[in-house]
Specification:
Number of strands: 0
Radius of gyration: 16 Å
Strand content: under 5%
Oligomer: single chain
Distance between the termini: 8 Å
Order of helices and strands: HHHHHHHHHHHHHHH
Structural class: mainly alpha
Length: 261
């Protein structure tokens, strides 16, 4: 049986969606809430996954998927990107580049390939250096996690390579943390949530507990946690797959079959 790959990011997105506009500062919350649903994070993740599975450019697939699944919480600038008949990069450093990158973190056999692919997933819209950096740091952490690196090694790599500050604990970050959609203020705390976790579920709870852009925080954290723990409770998997349209669920399962070995 393959281990879960990008469904870790997707389930994080779904769980976090309930709390994006009703933010909480605790890990004690109903995990699988009736108001949870998949958002743009999942749609774009699966567009990237399809690109990797079929060897197709990411930009046209993201554009097509966004139009096929409207109303999923797309950011303002990205929404106009979707509306354009000739979409061009708009120098974004938003966290959208990091939330959709998990397929790159699972699909390749070297770190160099992973980072190159992560950059390609960012470039169609998020071509600002910080947007590329957020995608690469996230994918790089996932690559190291699935290859057996320790949390200490992952933290040192992210800090030394991307100059992200991972020195503050979640308890130190949480009180003053606020909703922010930049890579700079989303990716480091999402990685920190993984570093302090004990398993997949605790990683998601920690990410959501920051009281920020909870679906994207949990999406980023969830992808890394899935790569590291190689296990997601069945009830979480069932919950996530039940909410995805069949086309999207089929892409996720096909990606597991190809890359979850």
């Amino acid at each position: 049986m393959p281990f879960p790959t990008i469904i870790g990011a997707i389930a994080g997105d779904i769980i976090g969606s309930r709390y994006e506009w009703d933010r909480i500062k605790t890990t004690d919350f109903e995990l699988l809430h009736p108001k949870c649903d998949y958002t743009d994070d999942s749609v774009m993740t699966l567009a990237v996954a399809k690109g990797i599975l079929e060897g197709k450019p990411f930009g046209p697939l993201m554009h097509a998927f966004g139009r096929a699944y409207p109303g999923r919480g797309y950011g303002g600038n990205f929404y106009y990107w979707l509306l354009s008949d000739n979409p061009q990069p708009y120098n974004s450093f938003g966290n959208g580049s990091a939330m959709r990158v998990s397929p790159a973190g699972f699909a390749f056999q070297t770190l160099a390939e992973t980072l190159a692919a992560a950059e390609q997933t960012a470039l169609p819209s998020h071509n600002h250096p910080e947007g590329i950096k957020g995608a690469q740091a996230t994918a790089g952490a996932m690559f190291l996690a699935r290859k057996g690196s320790s949390k200490k090694e992952i933290a040192e790599y992210v800090t030394n390579t991307f100059d992200y500050d991972l020195s503050r604990s979640m308890d130190e970050i949480r009180p003053d943390y606020y909703f922010d959609e930049t890579c700079q203020l989303t990716v480091p705390p999402a990685i920190q949530a993984f570093l302090e976790s004990d398993d997949y579920e605790s990683a998601i709870r920690l990410a959501v507990s920051l009281g920020g852009d909870s679906d994207t925080l949990a999406c980023i954290t969830g992808g890394i946690a899935a790569a590291y723990y190689r296990y997601i409770p069945q009830e979480i998997l069932d919950f996530a797959y039940a909410l995805l349209p069949k086309e999207l669920a089929d892409i996720s399962r096909a990606f597991d079959q190809r890359f979850g070995g």
